[in-house]
Design goal:
The protein is 21% helix and 34% strand. By secondary structure, the chain is α/β, with parallel strands linked by helices. It has a single domain, classed as P-loop containing nucleotide triphosphate hydrolases (Rossmann fold). A hairpin with a 2-residue loop joins strand 6 and strand 7. Helix 1 packs across helix 2.
Length: 143
Amino acid sequence: MILDSSSEQETREIARGFAKSLVGGDIILLNGDLGMGKSVFARSVIRSLCDNENLEVPSPTFTLVQTYDTSIGQVWHFDLYRLSSPEEIYEIGWEEAISSGGILLVEWSERLGDLMPTSYMDVKFSPIIDNPDKRKIEVLKHV
């Protein structure tokens, strides 16, 4: 699936629709350069799953992980930008998250290196060449 977004509002709407398809155990890897909309997307997915559009969803840039309880299970929001090695993921609850049956949203997943899961959804954010304010959001399922 490939969608274009012309604004943060459109990215939020795409994320809300995407959230409806999620089930426990889903791992979503959010990939793209800084400023492409990964955090906007993640926040909207979390708010949708929590059924609270006003929920405070801080970026886990410094805490590295935040968790949220939802009607379909726990959501783990990882931001791996500050990891210096893939093994550091174990210090922030990666094994617990994987085995929890919850939903994992992972920003900067390339930092996982060889620890990349084998089954996941890859959500790629990239600029549209003709219009730097627009984004292409591509969802690929890897099983």
